[in-house]
Amino acid sequence: MLHGAILSEVAPFCRYGATHCPRPQAANAPRARPGSPIARTLTPAPASSIVAPMSGESPHDADALARLERRIEDLVAACRRLQEDNANWRARHQALSAEYVRLNERTRAARSRVEEMIGRVAALTREGG
User: Fold this and answer.
1) Would you call 13 exposed, middle or buried from its count of C-beta atoms within 10 A (0-12, 13-18, 19+)?
2) By the 8 A CB rule, do 68 and 9 touch?
3) Over the stretch 78-100, which tens digit does the pLDDT of each residue have?
4) Which residues, other chains included, contact 78 with Cβ-Cβ below 8 Å and sequence gap of 6+?
5) Which DSSP category does 32 fall into?
6) Which of 25, 49, 60, 85 gives 29 a disulfide partner, CB atoms 3.0 to 4.6 angstroms apart?
7) How far apart are CA 3 and CA 27, in angstroms?
């Protein structure tokens, strides 16, 4: 699952993202009393930054950056494919909608002709009776 893999690199503290899991706190992080106004307004500082410092990049950082770049390129390619597919489906939907209208009109015309023929037959049977 590509999405989960990217989230695991961006937000390693939670496999689902940062929206519902608390960030790990440093051991020396100040603690507020649970339920106090300060506890509801302050968020703890992140334990570590997700962005590596610019100075002294290691080969591991370069590998991680290359992996992230490949994943982003894959996502961009997938997005383009999905946009093309979406455009194709929209065109197909439009063509099928036009065909539906055309067939519906033909059905209405055929029904009208059949009802007219039934009326003529009924009139002939009353006359010839």
Assistant:
1) middle
2) yes
3) 999 999 999 999 999 999 999 99
4) 2
5) -
6) 25
7) 31
